[in-house]
Specification:
Elements lengths: L9 H7 L4 H7 L7 H4 L3 H8 L3 H16 L1
Length: 69
């Protein structure tokens, strides 16, 4: 099962499953298509946008777990 951490790069999150895009967008990360955003970790992106990283990681991991069910 795929899992992410706060140190996972956004490009790697999207490589796991592009269905993660709505989760990132709803969290406040509206620049997912930006080339520099692709190289940021989840923690870095959340920090830039003033978002707490823990809930985003939890939502992504819940989504990825649901794909395995």
């Amino acid at each position: 099962m795929a899992q992410v951490t706060k140190d996972t790069v956004i490009a790697d999150v999207l490589e796991i499953d592009r269905g993660a895009i709505p989760i990132l967008m709803m969290s406040g990360m509206h620049c997912i298509g930006c080339p520099s955003a692709q190289a940021e970790t989840l923690e870095e992106a959340c920090m830039v946008h003033g978002i707490e990283v823990g809930p985003v990681v939890d939502q992504l991991n819940s989504y990825f777990a649901s794909l395995q069910a």
